[in-house]
Please model this.
Amino acid sequence: MKQRKEKTIFSAIQPTGNITIGNYFGAIKNWVQLQPDFNCIFSLADLHAITVRKDPEEFKQKALEAYALLLACEINVEKSLLFIQSQVNTHCQLAWMLSCCTEFGELARMTQFKDKSSSHSDNVNCGLFSYPVLMLSDILLYRADFVPVGQDQKQHLELTRTVAERFNFLYGPTFTVPEPYIKRGAKIKSLRDPTKKMSKSDPDLNSRIELLDSPDKIMKKIKRAVTDPENHVKYGENKDGINNLMTIYSCTTGKTLDEIEKEFDGIGYGEFKTTVAEALIEHLAPIQKNYSKIIKDKGYIKNCYKDSAEEALNISNETLNEVKKK
Ligand code: AQP
Model:
């Protein structure tokens, strides 16, 4: 990280599957835009991802691909840190110490634990329960001022603030208490059930567009997207499918919802869907082109993640040592 800015932002993404346009428009695209103004510390959170069982070889490969894809999306390792969480051992060490400053009842209240333990009832492991402590340690190690959060992570950030304040109160000022950085990114919904968010681990492949999907796949998935019987491109109630496609079109073209309604006045869903798919294909083409170059250069990828991990270790060790001393 060459230039030191006044404020630091921390954010992470889990390599739980292939990165989707939900992750891209909701998080990664904003990360890219934050780089000129903040010290940006980004992490590929592989330790978080293993709360759900993974095939080891496939997981390793997916993590490497996800890393390369983040580089292809223009996360710039000259300006920002982009490291793989398991390569920086301070995270687990701080997580243990801070788990001793976190109440059982606080973790039991986390709605994400309740959701995930019911959707993975065959494997309700302790990691699933204590995951928020690892997450708050990720943030506190870098003394992040801001953390971009969506609705689903607000509770975890509140816990981060509570634990930081508790530690500071008990042992003296140590941690920066982070503020939420309200995300500008859109919430992208599943193409098959637009009341749910688009997720990279959704078992239905047609529910999501992955950043590396071929033009043909993108066209087919958008064409099959659930809509409503109205055939009127208008944003509104009970039109979750069309609202979602309008949001995707708005994210790819920069057009407002009003402009989109005007553009498609009197035009049916078939033609609208083709236009959305074409815009998306065009938008993703440069990322796909970058990715196909980067993924061939394993040496470059390795240098990027090694350098970032080294620097992340240096920064986070300072915090960890202070905590140990206290
Ligand atoms: N559908 C979405 N729309 C907007 N933003 C989204 N994000 C995820 N899905 C959408 C944002 O992507 C960032 C990284 O997410 P994550 O990998 O840490 O976990 P997640 O939010 O649980 O993402 P997924 O794709 O749904 O993963 P799985 O399927 O493993 O649970 C976050 O900033 C998130 O808000």
